[in-house]
Specification:
Largest sheet: 5 strands, antiparallel
Radius of gyration: 28 Å
Shape: extended
CATH topology of the largest domain: Ribonucleotide Reductase Protein R1, domain 1
Helix content: 40-55%
Order of helices and strands: HEEEHHHHEHHEEEH
Number of strands: 7
Number of helices: 8
CATH architecture of the largest domain: Orthogonal Bundle
Number of domains: 2
Length: 317
Amino acid sequence: MRHRASRQAGVALVLVIWVVTLLLVIAGSFLYAMRVDARAARNASLIARGDALAQAAVARAVIELFKPLDGQGVWKRDGEARLWVFDGAEVATSVSDESAKIDINTANNELLKGLFRHAGMSEEDAARLLDAVLDWRDVDPLKRPLGAEEAEYAQAGLFGRPANYPFQSTEELQLVLGIPPGVFQRIAPMITVYSRQSGVNPQLASRGVLLAIPGVTAEAVDLFLAEREAARAEGRMPPIFTAAGAYASYARTAAATIRADVRLGDGIVVSREAVAMLTPQYPRRPYTLLAWREVSRDRDARESQAPGTEAADGKPR
């Protein structure tokens, strides 16, 4: 009898231990879930704050763009980062004129093909992609020798069809038949739909854009960039890039890309880009934001690895 009671007590003790263990597991899971939710809510709050600060940085950059070019401390459209502190956060803001990029709607055909070649495509594939791009943006349904119209998209099993209209955004280029995702990722920082020029502005263009110019060598580009940087440091007019020939266009545009990188706590960085079109001739609406996008760390990593791209050095101006 005594042995039986002892055995029952042992079983009860084991059950109690299992119940306590189960309760501890449930409590631990609940606490972990609450901790994750609290951290997610905090991060969401920080990102919302960063987004608001980025919008403020873009607004400040637009104001700076309306200042006279010969004024003191003017923000130039050279892509260099300006560091400043706003509401306790460190903000890096850069402005780049759209004339520094290759316009996929109006660029010279050879310049476009040079861009695709610079991104790693063969001569044949670059020529095929060029014809597909031209077929996408022209108004007729006639297929170029290496291009693609509706029949080719249907044959490839794609639901999309050529717009037969100019590109409305650079992202639309991804819909063109024959463009590899890796190629688009590499050229994305170097293209635009807002400059409306057949060439590029060498005084503002990145190394990657300059290397896309047909017939230009890496040695010529590096020598020009060194001369351009020296001229900027000394406050002189940037040099002329004679090697660019007819592919150079030194006129600036009314559109500029503004990038804001807001550094918050816990290593969180919120990055935003906007394309602003200045229209001072319309006092009631002196500027318009044509695009607003998030910039991911993945994109930054791809740009830093892309051939010929340049990053802002972060020095205050």
